[in-house]
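Why do we care about 3D structure at all? Because function follows from shape, and shape follows, mostly, from sequence. That is the central idea of this module. The next example makes it concrete: a single protein chain, its amino acid sequence, and then its structure expressed as tokens.
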Amino acid sequence: MKRIQYHAYGGPEVMRLEEFAPEAPGQGEVAIAVRFAAINPIDWKLRGGAMKIVTGRSFPRAMGVDLAGIVTAIGPGVTRFTVGDAVFGMARFKQAGALGESAIAKEIALAKKPDDLSFEEAACLVTPGVTAWNGLVDKAKLKAGQSVFVNGCAGAVGEAAVQIARMLGAHVSGSCSAEAIDRARSFGLRAVYDYRTTDPAMIPDKFDVVFDAAATLSTAAGIGMLRKGGTFTTVDPTPARFVRAIVDRRLKPIVGTPRADLLDTLARAAQDKSFRLPIAEIVPLAQAIPLITAIEGGRRLRGKAVVAIG
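And the structure:
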């Protein structure tokens, strides 16, 4: 079978579309024939060695985390899925492999795909949805009636955060580029600001939760936007922020962590159409490397980039 992989940590130039020998699923794991995979920044962060303390130095290493496909085999102890099930979720974080014809995922990192949700739509939901849920629900304990500010509300994680916050009954405002303001307003936000021209300190409202989906707010700026007892969550979990979070409970760095119940919740929300993310472009596996390279280099898309695998 074929997948995108690399033989050393590095930039886009190390990616190759190559043949590989699929492995059998282990304890609590599921083998999947991948139909579609969604591209995320974590893909090139892993390839660049940002998490080598976790991923190690064994090569070749595979690319891609978010996927949707068909279960082809189950490992010992798997009870939630059977061969033939349509699923979506995350490939194993350490090994990755969603950008390939076959991948292995942990049972707890998968959900059954709703019948009226396409494979390509399902693949888009995972990392954005998990990250947004981890920040808003698991970290900030968001409740109905509270106010949320989403920095980067027009990006994939930001749009997921807006939808989840509104689904939970919160009042949402946010910031994005001037070009995306009209689109962001269509999400139902109370107020939308141009991040390039707006000083967060000058926004008149204070918020119960500030969710930095763009990783551009300083800790001081994010905390400065909070009401008393509020929470600043950020997708930029630097070591310094983890240290500060020990003594400052207002700060909650996010590390996206999938769970079966979380993914099942996203599946139900997708089924009732309260949670969907737009697709900007779909390419076949043979053209995925140029698309990844372009997005990594700064190309902006109004929606998710998706790779058709099989």
